[in-house]
Amino acid sequence: MNQTEVSGVDRRWKRLRTVGCGECGLLFTNPMPTEAELDDYYASLYRLDYQGAVVRPSARHIRKRSAQAARRVSVIKTLLSPNAATLDFGTGSGEFILAMLEVGYDAHGFEPGGTYSSFARQRLGDRIRAGRWQDMDYGPRFDLITSFHVFEHLSDPVSAFRAAVSWLKPGGLIYIEVPDAVSGFKQSGFMSLHFAHVVGFNAHNLMLAAAKAGLEPVHHASATEIVFRRAERPLELYPLADAGAKLTRDMIGRSANGNAN
Q1: How far apart are CA 47 and CA 122, in angstroms?
Q2: What H or E segment, with its residue span, contains residue 244?
Q3: Residue 1: is its pLDDT beyond 60?
Q4: pLDDT (tens digit, 9 = 90+) per residue, 222-251?
Q5: Is the pLDDT of residue 206 over 90?
Q6: pLDDT tens digit string along 163-199?
Q7: What is the pLDDT of residue 260?
Q8: Tens digit of pLDDT for each residue in 32-50?
Q9: Cα→Cα distances 204→24, 117, 135, 163, 212, Å
Q10: What angle do the packed helices 157-166 and 203-212 form, to 10 degrees?
Q11: What's the 3-state SS for 120-187?
C-alpha cells in the first residue's frame, strides 16, 4: 500500500505516526494499536483521558450530547416511521437513546466503556448493553442503526459496517456520522490528531468503506454524516477511492505549504 506520512505527533505532542493511504485517502495510525490495546484503552482509560470523566459524565457533557441528539432525531424523523426499532452503535452515556424514546422509537444501544455504559444502564436499563461491537449478537431486528463519532475509533471499520448490516431488517437504514478528517486537518493540522482516532475519514472513503459492506448512500446531512441502505447492485469502488485519495493528497499538499494550521 502506498502511504504518505502526515504527522509524527498528536495534539498533545505525544509520538503518534499518522499516514494517508495513497489508494483511498484514509488517514490511519501506523503502527495500528492491537485490538487488546484498544479494548483496554476504551474499557478503562478513554473517558478519563479524552473527557475527564472518572465516575460519570459531566453536566456539560450531558447538555452537549442532548443538544446533538435533538438535531439527529430531527433528521431521523424525516426518514423513519414512528415506533421503529433502532440501535445506537457506541451509545456513550445514552442521551440519544433518551431522545429517541421521547418521540416514540423503540431505541436500544450498546457501549464498550465501563464508565458511560454503567451510567446509561442506570437510566435506561436493559435497553443498553455493555460491550464491544464484536461481542454483540442482535440478529436482523432493527429498522435503523446509528453511530455518531464512533467509527473513527475502530481499527476495522469495514467489518463493523458488515456487522451493522447483519443487524438490519430488510429495508433498514444505517446513519453514520464521523469527523471530517480533511476539514479538521486543514483547520488545525496535527492538533486534530490523537490516539483515540485510529482512522480519519473523508466523504469518499467513508462511502467506500460502506460500499465494501454492501451499502449505498441515500441522504447526506454533511460530508461525513450520511444515511445508507443496502445497495441494489454492487457499487463501482474505484471512483470513490480515487476521489478520497485526491482529497487527502490536496490536504497534505496544503499542509506542506504551511496552509493547514
Answers
A1: 17
A2: helix 237-256
A3: yes
A4: 999 999 999 998 899 999 999 999 999 998
A5: yes
A6: 999 999 999 999 999 999 989 998 888 889 988 899 9
A7: 39
A8: 988 888 877 776 666 666 5
A9: 8, 32, 29, 21, 12
A10: 50
A11: HHHHHHHHEEECCHHHCCCCCCEEEEEEECCHHHCCCHHHHHHHHHHCEEEEEEEEEECCEHHHHHHH
C-alpha cell at 71: 438535531
Radius of gyration for the alpha carbons in the chain, expressed in angstroms and rounded: 18
Residues 112-148 as b/e (b if ≥16 CB within 10 A, e otherwise) read: bbebbbebbbeebeebbbbebbeebebeeebbbbbbb
260, 242 in Cβ contact below 8 A?
Answer: no
Contact 179, 205 (CB under 8 A): no
Cα angle: 19, vertex 199, 4; to 5 degrees: 10
Cell numbers representing residue 215 in the block: 451499502
Our CA angle for 253, 156, 205, nearest 5°, is 40
Q: How far apart are CA 253 and CA 26, in angstroms?
A: 15
Whole-structure pTM value? 0.90
Contacts by 52-55, CB closer than 8 A, 24 or more apart = 53/115, 53/116, 54/115, 55/115
251: amino acid identity, one letter:
M
**pLDDT category of residue 54 using cuts at 50, 70 and 90:** low
Q: Can you give the pLDDT at residue 172?
A: 97
HEC string of 97-118 equals HHHHHHCCCEEEEEECCHHHHH
Q: What is the dihedral of CA 149, 104, 86, 96, to 10 degrees?
A: 20
